[in-house]
Amino acid sequence: MNMTDFNPDFESIVARALQYPVMERQGYTLEFARFSTTLYLFRPDIPFCRHPEIYRRACAHQVLALAEQKCPRWAARLRDISVPVRLRRRPGIIATFHTGSYRLLPRWLHTQGIPFSLVISNEVMLAQGGRYRGQAANPPADVFDLIDADRPDAFFRMRRALASGKCLLIYVDGNSGAATASASREQTLAFFGRHIRVKTGTAMLACLTGVPIYPIAHIRHKNGTSPFDIGRTIIADKAAPRGRQAMDITRKLYQRLEGTLREDPAQWENWFFLHRFMADEERIDKVSSSLDDPAWIVVETGGRIYHLDRKTGTCVPALVT
């Protein structure tokens, strides 16, 4: 698969990622085992024999996203990709996911002259906040700023940013932060026929403020092109109860994500972490097992051997005889 549509310099980066090991001497690596477990539960239609290839391509997406974030060629290209006119005319919430080169989205908005606030967790802000500001040439706060989603006043800062005429850029699948917690309780949402725990604060914010939601995500196609996928604007129904409306909007956003991942599941970074957000009842469900798709696999980590139950994501030490 050609993952670099215009920069051959990245081909060696992708080639190395596509060779990442999935096996130790006596079992699978823990990272691959967790990734495979998530696919096993949410995409039972994908046979186990394809999991190593999907895992390696997901790793390639990660390293490519980091490389593209610093690529000067992308800076020129982003200037030629126009943002929707409706977004310029009416600022709102840009709802996105961790797909493709998702870090290019804030860079694109800044290049296009869109004032916005990026909502990220405290962990990401500490690790990458300086990088985000540096890419935007350290602009004044009325042009670009960061909102720490874990601060108690985050939700109110988001409302102030919208009231000032700025957009908000929110990664809906971040699923963390006091900002969303203060707006709504954690909810359970159907995802690929199973259930995950999500927060509907992004949608609730749109219901409270009346601003539109613009679903925009970066994706890569199999032919190598990597555009921004721009969906239809979502407007909250003022007549509907806010709680139900927020849930309906969140469901629509995740349905868009499902559509992308049905074609190419490796696009999404969160397969590596989705086990943290599974609904409790999903962990004890029965899942079919066969020799080609085993429910238990052997995992090696830290020189120790475990058996991983892919139905529940739990490891137990292997008996040594």
Describe the overall structure.
The structure is a single chain. The chain is an alpha/beta fold and 321 residues long. The chain has a domain at 66-269. The protein contains eleven helices and eleven strands. It has helices at 11-17, 30-42, 51-69, 72-79, 85-89, 104-111, 122-135, 154-163, 178-183, 201-209, 242-263; strands spanning 93-96, 116-120, 144-148, 167-171, 186-191, 194-199, 213-218, 228-230, 296-301, 304-309, 314-317. The strands form three sheets. A six-stranded mixed beta sheet has the order 3-2-4-1-7-8, with helices on both faces. A three-stranded antiparallel beta sheet has the order 9-10-11, covered by helices on one side. A two-stranded antiparallel sheet has the order 5-6. Helix 1 (11-17) runs antiparallel to helix 3 (51-69), helix 4 crosses helix 6 and helix 10 packs across helix 11. It is globular. Mean pLDDT is 84; it is low at 178-184.
* Count of distinct strands: 11
Globally, the shape reads: globular
Helix content: 25-40%
* Uncertain runs: 178-184
Question: What is the strand content?
Answer: 15-25%
Chain-averaged pLDDT: 84
Q: What is the SS-derived class? A: alpha/beta
Radius of gyration: 20 Å
Alpha-carbon distance between the two ends? 44 Å
Largest sheet: 6 strands, mixed
Seen as an oligomer or otherwise, the chain set is: single chain
Pattern of helices and strands: HHHHHEHEHEHEHEEHEEHEEE
What's the total helix number? 11
Strand order, largest beta sheet? 3-2-4-1-7-8
